[in-house]
Structures
1.
Amino acid sequence: MKTRFPLLNWRQQVALDVGTSTIRAASGLRPLIEHCSCLGSKAGVRGGVVVDPATVAEILRPILDSTRLFGIVKPCVLACAPSDATQEERQRLHDAIMQAGASSVMIIPEPLAAAVGAGIDVSSPYAQMVVDIGEGVTDCALIKMSRIQTTAAVRVGCGQMRTGLPPVPFRQSGRLPDRHSLQPVLESITGLIDDFLQDLSPETGCEVIENGILLTGGGALIPGLSRYLEQHSGIHVVTAPKPRDSVVEGARAILPVVVMLNLLT
């Protein structure tokens, strides 16, 4: 039986998490590749979205070149973007990846990839809430039956919190340190979560209370943050096993399904 896309099974498939501080790539069973999202003083990404496509393309080019089959056949790429990314911001991400040497690009919401990468059953008929706190954006999503039902995001994250944290030796208590210096960022994040929860129907809200909130992203590693969010919301917060890698690992897991459906060619 002939396929409409004869090179589909020959191309390498690459999952990308283009983050504010770090770009992560995953292909097949290979170990993750990580690279800073800037070149010298040139920042390629801010607030979770591409601001300089040329810089991002330059960073990605050697990564994608290493996945070319026989050194010739370009890879297809599944990338992730914040749920509130505008069409223009998604286009810049798409353009940067194509300039870097991809044959095609598909973009999915970061919270969906984060949920899959954290190992939760996104196909469940019961609502599950994900809060992904990245370097420059915090993304909330409600997932049910493999679909994102609703989302909300704010362009602040652990990058702004890190400026108020003490040196590493003082981070061992498991408590959120120097809360006063972190308060503006914490208020933005808790305000986002409060508004998100208030907009849910009573039935959906009960499902979230029962299932808890899944916390992913680099912000999940800040000592005491999960406990603080739990105390503030009154809902149990579960931290993903490897929160920094949840998005890219989720995209890697989703890739075979996307390819099978011929959505990425």
Note: The chain has eight helices and 14 strands.
2.
Amino acid sequence: MKSKQSGITMIGFLFILIIAAFFGYMAMKLVPSYIEFMGVKKAMSQIATDGGDHSVEAVRQDLLRKLDFQYVDDATVGPNDINVTRNNGAYTLTVSYDKQIPFIANIDFLLHFNNSVQLPGTLGE
């Protein structure tokens, strides 16, 4: 009696391997940006828990200093990406930035990151 072979062919295996490599390459390009954003969120939460009475410019400088400790690139988040707004007596720290990541040939990923935290205490203008 002849036994029937089962399994994947070489062409099928190569097809699955190419798809897995494509998504792996995409993950290698995108994951560092999301890890960097987690560092931004951590630095912002540290600013929010520090408290105290500071000026708006002192909050910006303190955040930029904490971003250095979180290995956030200086080109990623700049002073123009950091906003401190007052709404009904409460201050909100917002960081909003875009990051463009080259992928293949003329295909790029454009990622938009945005996070806000409430600041305790009062801020001097």
Note: The chain has a mean pLDDT of 90.
